[in-house]
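Hi L., both proteins are below.
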Amino acid sequence: MFGNYLIGLREGLEASLVVCILIAYLVKTGRRDALKPIWIGIGVAVGVALAFGAGLEFGSQELTFEAQELLGGSLSVIAVVLVTWMVFWMRRTARHLKTELHGKLDAALQMGTGALVATAFLAVGREGLETALFVWASVRASSDGTYAPLTGVLLGLLTAVLLGWLFYRGALKINLAKFFTWTGGMLVVVAAGVLAYGVHDLQEARFLGGLADKAFDISATIPPDSWYGTLLKGVFNFQPDPTVLQVTVWALYLVPTLALFLAPIGSGPSVRVKKQKATDEKAESAANAETAG
């Protein structure tokens, strides 16, 4: 459940921060007239993400067992690729996220209502689709026959919305770089488990071989239905009897990915980011002067 809570929190907070940054910028610059298109874009993005998740869940139920396993395994691999890209991208751009969004919003304001809707839709929609896919893959991997995995995701999303609101109201200060580094590292561990489970699905679908080649079997020591077995499965997608291929893929993904992710970043903000930051500072100064006058 914790692993799914982390996914909901991490992915949900990204979307919440994007929304807060867009809304706060429009309010601060006196463009409240542009709020409606932004909310329309956000609403459409959320609807598309929910429809995508529902399509994955209910659409897969009509397939044969092997087709379900092939689909589940393939989507699990795709989800891990997307999430891995996302955590690296967010780690590098977290401290400059506000400035980059402001630049896109300025351009959209000049182009009109349709551009504002598209900007909000693309900014939130990407997060929503990634979240729907990875949540579906993770819940499927850690499902134990209960609603605990889905409950963990929902609690994470609700926490993210609350933190986003507090962030918008100025009641909470978040060091985005540190937050996304720590949660990103934990998410890489969760993704490794999802990837291993996806490989197992592909083996059951007979797309990959080696299903009978067990790396080890400690089911007697850590029963899957015990509280600690359930805890390990919920947090790390742990399996007490993985195949050799599962363990190999898990290690080949986790070790180098985590090492690269935790390596220090040496590059500073780009020229474009610096230029947009200067523009933001001028706009804020002008708004403050107008308010004072």
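That was the first. Here is the second:
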Amino acid sequence: MTGTSRPSPAAAPSGDAARRAGKRVLLAAPRGYCAGVDRAVIAVEKALEQYGAPIYVRHEIVHNKYVVKTLENKGAIFVDRTAEVPEGSIVMFSAHGVAPVVHEEAAERKLATIDATCPLVTKVHKEAVRYAKEDYDILLIGHEGHEEVIGTSGEAPDHITLVDGPEDVANVEVRDESKVVWLSQTTLSVDETMETVDALKEKFPLMIAPPSDDICYATQNRQIAVKQMGADADLVIVVGSKNSSNSVRLVEVALGAGAGASHLVDEAGEIDEAWLDGVSTVGVTSGASVPEVLVDGVLGWLSERGFEDVEIVKAAEESITFSLPKELRRDLRAEAAALSQS
């Protein structure tokens, strides 16, 4: 993307003119798809390719309207409840993970399942199970109603208390202050999480931390890149859907880093041209569930308005990949048929 020019209408200034006018774009790197999202989206595509449509998916596979619509057009059917999936069908669980009760519901309905839960979310689930077995009170930092929080809470409902930000800490009670641990939703802001952790530590000095940071590497890297560009940007455009927690956090991080303004858009058509009034530097990034084609659309829109000079703001290299769900190596249609006859 860096150093390339995009065609612009005759009325738009040339690249040289744009630079003289001080118009530029700071493009965050990394941005967009993380390894867990990439794995989940490919898993749906592979399942459709191997087993044919329909493939049912419980909740949105990832929180992005464009991705969901694209997969629907290929034959995926998204449902809110396991009960909506016809018996003997194939159902996939989203990247956000599900509670054990959902696996039980699928078994009762004789469904063949594909678990596309992000491995980093699975790690948090395993931590919850382990600490519950050791009879800890688990303080789960996260947003009420988020699918990942619902899934993690379901792993140990009798031991987990949700803490939705520092303002919740005053109401938290535990059985034994010497056996308390905190876990976190993976897509939160690092700063937001640590603010809550600090408040919890003040109340429960003996509270322990999980063996590794629960905030996922992709969330951290995208936030670091936005922090680096924020102070230099008059405006930061974050590409992502409103139900994407990590995308919403990027807007907050941009403002906290000093950006003059920041807005969340699903695609270029949602940008308000009035946002560019008095703006010479625009930062652009995208949430972890956003395909690059949507970022390209925003860059093209900006280019047509004289913002042709694109500089990369690089925070980290990402090389992590996850293998596809093991269920894709089996004949799930045959399994579903056998289950429905049993």
